[in-house]
């Protein structure tokens, strides 16, 4: 039986990755597997082709774009692409995996549009922009101007929330994790 598709998007600092990791670690019965994306950047550290990403040259990536092979893609910087291949998603789904997409809001909307009811789109929302700023500042990983850029992007991304099937407000992490689990469990039944 084919697996289903779960799209999870959120502004940076909303807790999306933490929630996804909790779901995958604590609930193996959900049979969740990350969608393996493509990138035109070089592997970092111990990354392996076909495990973390499929590593393509910018030319190979552009050829796949021209052939319409991507569900969604983005050129983040000149010649630096990230994207999701339709064929990879179908292969994982055919193995019975419920494929999880950890994507930006535009990518999430594109995947949902392509798959319709076969996919659940979930938007993880911070309780407020002020709380999001506090979280980003407390990470102490970004310069103030980078945090300002992330906040401006978050304000823009929040406008996409109504296009998603469900929204989880991550005010308390444990509650947000449980709510995401219940929504996904219901969708998979």
Please, could you describe this protein's structure?
The strands form two sheets. Strands 2-7-1-8-9 form a five-stranded parallel beta sheet, sandwiched between helices. The protein has a four-stranded mixed beta sheet with strand order 4-3-6-5. α1 packs across α7 (173-188) and α5 (129-139) packs antiparallel against α6. It has helices at residues 16-26, 58-66, 86-94, 105-115, 129-139, 144-158, 173-188, and strands at residues 5-9, 32-34, 37-39, 53-55, 70-77, 80-85, 98-102, 119-125, 166-169. The chain starts with a strand and ends with a helix. It is an alpha/beta fold. The protein is 43% helix and 23% strand. It is built from seven helices and nine strands, in the order βαβββαββαβαβααβα. The model has no long low-confidence stretch (mean pLDDT 93).
Topology:
Layout lengths: L4 E5 L6 H11 L5 E3 L2 E3 L13 E3 L2 H9 L3 E8 L2 E6 H9 L3 E5 L2 H11 L3 E7 L3 H11 L4 H15 L7 E4 L3 H16 L1
Parallel strand pairs: 1-7, 1-8, 2-7, 3-4, 8-9
Antiparallel strand pairs: 3-6, 5-6
Identify the notable features of this structure and list them briefly.
189 residues; alpha/beta; five-stranded parallel sheet; four-stranded mixed sheet
Tally of DSSP helical segments: 7
Strand order of the largest sheet: 2-7-1-8-9
Distance between the termini: 13 Å
Q: Using the alpha-carbon principal axes, give the shape.
A: globular
Low-confidence spans = none
The overall pLDDT average reads 93
Based on CA atoms alone, the radius of gyration comes out at 17 Å
SSE-based structural type? alpha/beta
Q: Report strand %.
A: 15-25%
Order of helices and strands: EHEEEHEEHEHEHHEH
Number of strands: 9
Largest sheet, strands/sense/barrel: 5 strands, parallel
Work out the helicity level. Answer: 40-55%
């Amino acid at each position: 039986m084919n697996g289903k598709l779960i799209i999870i998007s959120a502004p940076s600092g909303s807790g999306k990755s933490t929630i996804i990791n909790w779901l995958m670690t604590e609930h193996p019965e959900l049979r969740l597997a990350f969608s393996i994306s493509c990138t035109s950047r070089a592997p970092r550290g111990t990354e392996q082709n076909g495990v973390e990403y499929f590593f393509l040259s910018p030319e190979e990536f552009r050829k796949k774009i021209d052939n319409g092979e991507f569900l969604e893609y983005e050129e983040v910087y000149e010649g630096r692409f990230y994207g999701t291949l339709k064929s990879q998603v179908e292969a994982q789904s055919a193995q019975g995996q419920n494929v999880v997409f950890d994507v930006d809001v535009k990518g999430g909307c594109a995947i949902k549009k392509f798959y319709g009811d076969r996919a659940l789109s979930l938007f993880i929302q911070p309780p407020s922009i002020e709380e999001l700023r506090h979280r980003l500042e407390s990470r102490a990983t970004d310069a103030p101007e980078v945090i300002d850029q992330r906040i401006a992007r978050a304000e823009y991304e929040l406008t996409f929330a109504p296009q998603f099937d469900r929204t989880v407000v991550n005010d308390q992490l444990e509650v947000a994790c449980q709510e995401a689990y219940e929504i996904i469990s219901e969708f998979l039944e």
